[in-house]
Amino acid sequence: MSEPVDVVLIGGGVMSATLGTLLSQLQPDWKIEVYERLDDVALESSNAWNNAGTGHAALCELNYMPAAKDGSVDPARAVGINEQFQLSRQLWSSLVERGILDEPSTFINSTPHMTFVRGEKDVAYLKRRYESLRQQPLFDGIEFSTDSRVINQWAPLLMQKRLKSDEPFAATRVPAGTDVDFGALSRQMFDKLEQSGAHVIRNREVTNLTRQKDGTWLVKYRNRIGRTPGRTRARFVFVGAGGWAIKLLQRSGIPEIKGYGVFPIGGQWLKTSNPELVAQHRAKVYSQASVGAPPMSVPHLDTRVVDGETSLLFGPFATFSPKFLKQGKITDIVAQVRPGNLWPMLKVAIDNPSLISYLVRELLKNKDRKVASLREFMPTAESADWELLNAGQRAQVMKKDPDKGGVLQFGTEVVSSADGSIAGLLGASPGASTAVAIMLNLLKSCFPDRIAEWEPQLRELIPSYGTALNPHPEAAASTLARTAEALALKA
């Protein structure tokens, strides 16, 4: 067999695109191969219609800053998520300046981020959240109002039929929010990777991963056209295959994956391109999740810009499929079961009856009931203006817990071998938005002997690399301004 390649990236989504781009800048002499099982890259979770494109910076997502039992709110996690998104903005800015990414409006656009709540309890909570966040430099510019006239200026569709209501309501708004087309972003990065010499191979499905005596990995695959098998050796493997990552990491045999499982949750949107409605709503507006609902199902009414066309999405509404990907296999959920993860997965089912009840309620909703949910946001919504659109599959992490036996984890987690020769990403939101932070941490853990020599180049790409912005107001303000200018973002 020929000499091993330096890096094999499995999966053509934003994670592999980000890691491949970083490595191509840090080690342009390395041979990189990307294997995508579908006809093109970014067709699964990174596809614009399969995710909300929010650019998660904790500006509007309440689940990153829940109220404690005593009613207090801690901004630490929200600040942490925002710090991670600033790393993404800085890298994208550098890639635009270097000509690796196209005109910024092809993948990122200014879209205010809002939160809208009703009822005295939630209004009081939102006020406390606002008072806490307004003191954080990264949240500079956040606004709060209980005035129906002000909220009507921010988002008219929310306030129609509510202007004279006695019901308490409140909203926050951050003009500096963004809408991100992660599909376009991924495709542009892969295009540049190919131009720089990487091999991005489509219609290639990886079937097995085996560690060799020399420390390399034997990557077995089959080409979906012609079904011809093949194999490659690689010094490093990253599994960025969405829900299928669990399957490939299990096949690799690394002990670190024992005890992990994933639970697939699908979604649907209500979508409209009616220009009269689109013109009245320029924001991403989040609210509180239903009791028992996973964070990824927080209802929100979003402006989306995809391929230059602006539309509105509302949802997501949960669906269920045993597949780990939209184009997965119905046996996925069963095929992952191992002796080491069976009990943790059973404990998750036992300990989360509210999640099961929520999924059942969601599955029973027809379009009329989904439009009724939309009317809680937009009182004047008409069913004829909206169509149902299937979103992507999200594979939520289940894993062992020393106290509970097993826990369901919302978020992302990198699982890597002890020697750092293979790593994979499990989980979902806010993954795409924080892809840069996730991949920087992966570089540290998997390439500890090289990270020191890479640091000067990383600081050129990401000026705040290694330091936090929020404790330094001037640095935070200058970074936000610089990336806004580079990405042509206007509040």
From TrEMBL:
Coiled-coil regions listed in the entry: none
Enzyme class at the top of the EC tree: oxidoreductase
Pathway: Carbohydrate metabolism; tricarboxylic acid cycle; oxaloacetate from (S)-malate (quinone route): step 1/1
Keyword Disulfide bond: no
Matches recorded under Gene3D superfamilies: D-Amino Acid Oxidase, subunit A, domain 2, FAD/NAD(P)-binding domain
Cofactor dependency: FAD
Keywords attached to this entry: FAD, Flavoprotein, Oxidoreductase, Tricarboxylic acid cycle
Tagged with keyword Aminoacyl-tRNA synthetase: no
Catalytic activity: (S)-malate + a quinone = a quinol + oxaloacetate
E.C. no: 1.1.5.4
PANTHER family in alphabetical order: L-2-HYDROXYGLUTARATE DEHYDROGENASE, MITOCHONDRIAL (PTHR43104:SF2)
Family that this chain belongs to: Belongs to the MQO family.
Name by which UniProt lists this protein: Probable malate:quinone oxidoreductase
Organism for this UniProt entry: Microbacterium sediminicola
